[in-house]
Amino acid sequence: MNSYLQLSEVCIDFPTPKGPFRALDKVSLDIAQGEFVSLIGHSGCGKSTVLNIVAGLYQATEGGVLLEDKEVNSPGPERAVVFQNHSLLPWLTAYENVELAVKRVFKGKKTKAEMKAWIEHNLHLVHMDHAMHKRPDEISGGMKQRVGIARALAMEPKVLLMDEPFGALDALTRAHLQDSLMDIHRALGNTVIMITHDVDEAVLLSDRIVMMTNGPAATIGEILTIDLERPRRRVELSDDTHYNHLRHEVLAFLYERQRKVEDIGSAKKSREAGSDSKPKLARTA
Amino acid sequence: MIATLTSLRQNPASLMPSAAQVAQFAKGLMLPLIGIVLFLFIWHNVAQLIDTSLGKFPGPTQVWEQSTNLIAEHNEERQRAVEFYERQEARNAETLAADPSAEVTIRPYTGKRTFLDQIFTSLYTVMAGFILASMIAVPLGILIGLNEAVYAAFNPLIQLFKPVSPLAWLPLVTMVVSAVYVTNDPLFSKSFLNSMFTVLLCCLWPTVVNTAVGVANVSKDLLNVSKVLSLPPLTHTFKIVLPSALPLMFTGLRLSLGIAWMVLIAAEMLAQNPGLGKFVWDEFQNGSSNSLSRIMVAVLAIGFIGFLLDRSMLFLQRWVSWDKNAVLR
Ligand SMILES: Nc1ncnc2c1ncn2[C@@H]1O[C@H](COP(=O)(O)OP(=O)(O)OP(=O)(O)O)[C@@H](O)[C@H]1O
Ligand SMILES: [Mg+2]
User: Fold this and answer.
1) Residues in chain B within 8 Å Cβ distance of A135
2) Other C-beta atoms lying within 10 Å of the C-beta of residue B117
């Protein structure tokens, strides 16, 4: 396999008052161009940390990330991020939020009219044409998330990084956005890394699922290749034996091989940390 | 009230306005009105109990009387000025008629400053000091908030100068202004500069501190967005940092303007610089039977102008703020 994006032996230590805390240990992963990879693992294992290192927001302590054989060491628009909580600028409309990114990437490469068309095209991809000129506080959570995705897509990134993009949404909206994302991925062939807590989502969308072991010093436990035909249809797949087998594989990894045995203190802490979003993993179990 | 009437017309059976309407009316108008009436009542009664060397402490009626007097005096003074110039012009015309090559001059009228003149002087001075201070404080605050090193360098100085009373600055400012500002044809009077710089030095700090805090506390998510987009420094400042910091910046500006107004009155009293403070001081020295009422008029005027200044800042904030629904008070 030719590797487009390469993580080689990535380790990271966070400084804490009690000395360095090794969050990730020797994470190695090769991703091909156009591949859709999901990261799954228990809360706090280090998924966001992996994503942030690829984005360039964190620096690996040891090892590193190569994109097209060039080392990644700072954030940049060719690795666009869809943040978990949309992170739109509240003082700009949906259109202006996308515009900020488009202007940054295509200044001097596209004319004003081309940029306008391109912004509108991307908002159309996520079905946001009708509320283009509304500010984030005037649209729903799902719509905000869609604008966040449009902003990332509009940058024509080499790699699209998504941190639980649908985590805070209700099941119906989530299914709808998953379908849109599959369509977009099929049409544009982006290279995607997506973090998820949802086993169905991971199996439905991914070419490969990367399952992470529990921290501290988390690393990649197993990698599952999802060889289901595309385009995939959720209703048909739910009755498909191979699909259900793959699903079973992920569940077995998460709840048998990496069963999370937490002491009461840390369980309480993670409940507080996650109290704003859906009950993680409990739903799929 | 209008809403009550229309609802009455539509539904004559409901002679009683709804509970919600009554509550709205009470909150909007009745309660503030009750507060003011109660205050006037207490003031009136307590004033009669206080004897001073200048007679009884003025009650609301005496103060009202003096406020109309002060306005009448202002109009008289203006009239006198007009007459003064008319007399000069008539005299000059006569001289020119007798001898066309004669040189004529018009001397400026140097009458006494009226209450309204003093208000105008104070307003002008406070705005000059405040605007100048803001022009320094906002960029400085942004710089300090953006950069840890600049913060570390400036923080001790800010902490040191923030609590300094205006009265301590005043002598220094006065000496420096008279030493540095020497021209034969001054554009600004020295007293104006003294008051203005004292105001400036005192109202710098709340804006600097609040702007810096606002800038330093931009949400981490938005900072990450800026990093991923690799926004250039200026775009970063204007698109991400400033809009986030705006509410706190305005809190600082409003605090500054409030301080500026209080400081100015004190400075004018102490330095005998023209303005409302001098009016109060002059009346105090004058010690006539009306003095206390006139000072009281000044006190109310100072309060009311302070209130208007704060409101105007609030309107400015509403106007520039992106969030038109935010509750600002
Ligand atoms: N900036 C930081 N400083 C210190 N420790 C950190 C920092 N960021 C993350 N960690 C630690 O690294 C570990 C992994 O965190 P991370 O946010 O990557 O988890 P996650 O897998 O994304 O969890 P979740 O699914 O709940 O989002 C956690 O134990 C966390 O406490
Ligand atoms: Mg995370």
Assistant:
1) 322
2) 17
- Using alpha carbons, select from A211, A276, A206, A208 the residue that is nearest to residue A250: A211
Q: How far apart are CA B253 and CA B191, in angstroms?
A: 25
CB B228 to CB A81 under 8 A? yes
- Residue of chain B nearest A58, judged by CA positions: B224
| A246-270 CB burial, b ≥16 within 10 A, e <16 | bbebbeebbeeebebeeeeeeeeeb
Find the distance separating the first CA and the last CA of chain B, reported in whole Å.
25
Contact list, A100 vs chain B (CB under 8 Å): 229, 231, 239
Q: Which residues surround ligand 2, an ion (CB under 5 A)?
A: A 48
State pLDDT tens for residues B123-162. Answer: 999 999 999 999 999 999 999 999 889 999 998 998 898 8
Interface touch B228/A91, C-beta < 8 Å: no
Where are chain B's structural domains?
114-322
The CA A277 to ligand 2 mean position distance, Å, reads 12
Decide which of B298 and B7 is more confident: B298
Strand partners, A163: A195
Are B81 and B111 a contacting pair, CB within 8 Å? yes
- Of B16-20, B150-154, B324-328, the range with the lowest mean pLDDT is B324-328
Q: Residue B227: its chain A contacts at CB < 8 A?
A: 56-57, 75
Q: Which is nearest to A220 in space by CA: A9, A28, A11, A4? A: A28
pLDDT at B311 over 70: yes
Centre of ligand 2 from the C-alpha of residue A164, in Å: 7
pTM: 0.80
DSSP B325: T
Give how far Cα A167 sits from Cα of A36, A58, A162, A175, A281, Å: 18, 22, 11, 11, 11
Q: Whose CA is nearest to atom 6 of ligand 1?
A: A14
Q: Cα–Cα distance between B218 and B242 in angstroms, integer?
A: 9
The ligand whose atoms approach the alpha carbon of A83 most closely is 2
Within B162-216, residue ranges assigned H as helices are 166-180, 190-216
CATH 1.10.3720.10 matches B114-322 = yes
- How far apart, in Å, do the first and last CA atoms of chain A sit? 34
B240 contacts chain A (CB < 8 A):
yes
The CA distances from residue B270 to B115, B166, B201, in Å, are: 18, 10, 16
CA nearest neighbour of B68 among B306, B293, B302, B299: B293
Q: A47 CB less than 6 Å from ligand 1?
A: yes
Say whether the peptide bond before residue A231 is cis (omega within 30 degrees of 0): yes
CA of A44 to the centre of ligand 2 (A): 7
> Which member of A77, A83, A90 has the closest CB to residue B229?
A77
Render pLDDT for A219-274 as a digit per residue (tens, 0 to 9): 999 999 999 898 899 999 989 999 999 999 999 999 888 877 655 445 444 444 44
AA identity, residue A129: D
Interface predicted TM-score of the whole assembly (ipTM), two decimals: 0.83
H or E segment and range at residue A191: strand A191-195
